[in-house]
Amino acid sequence: MAFYGGMTSAAELIAPCRALLMDMDGTLVNSNASVERAWTAWAQAVGADPQEVLSFCHGQPAPVTMRRFAPQWSEERIVEEVERHIAREVEDVADVTPMPGALELTQWLDEQDMPWAVVTNSPAELARRRLAAAGLQPPVLVTASDVTAPKPAPDPYEYAAELLAVLPSEALAVEDSPAGLAAGREAGCVTVAVMGACDADLVLADPDELLMLLREVHER
Fold first, then answer.
1. What domains can be seen in the chain, in order of their start residue?
2. Among 34, 58, 76, 77, which is most exposed with the fewest C-beta within 10 angstroms?
3. pLDDT tens for residues 153-168?
4. Counting Cβ atoms within 10 Å, is residue 125 exposed (0-12), middle (13-18) or buried (19+)?
5. In DSSP terms, which residues pair with 21 in a beta bridge?
6. Predicted TM-score (pTM) of this structure
7. CA-wise closest residue to 166 among 143, 139, 192, 206
8. Interatomic CA distance for residues 24 and 53, integer angstroms
9. 23 catalytically annotated
């Protein structure tokens, strides 16, 4: 565990927060195999290096990745390719699972009546499919379909906070990608990095460790 910002403890950092805003892929949901299959196939089809594409695409909207590695494509072509790409991912959820501690964390939040939302750059149909496959039912879901500017813009986190009737500064933004952490930070949330991400107010191993901290705070 690591924490920043001059706080004396991680518990003190999260104690004032009234809601959790959490990323989906890589944070609550393990969709790595599906993501790798889809982007590897796409990279091979366009003659790009699959490893470079996979290193770049995490946390990025699909059109951003396609513009990066197929700059010759028109916007019309990108729209068509994104639709095909998402359709493949929607059908490929057989091995999508919850991340360690994700089910326990969200169940505890529901038991405590603590507001929470999933905030993802995935389109709505794909997000719903992956969440269902992982056994997660967020009370609020904000997807790329709901905002004009996806992460790393702050819009998704600002909108999620509005739907939960809290200020962004009263919410934890839990993320595993630089783009997501940048979005949460710009929105004014307390940022929590998990699964190897960094550059956040608080760095934890996984949702399980976050649950331990939340229990510690609420039992005081």
1. 2-31+96-218 (3.40.50.1000), 32-91 (1.10.150)
2. 76
3. 999 999 999 999 999 9
4. middle
5. 117, 173
6. 0.90
7. 139
8. 20
9. yes
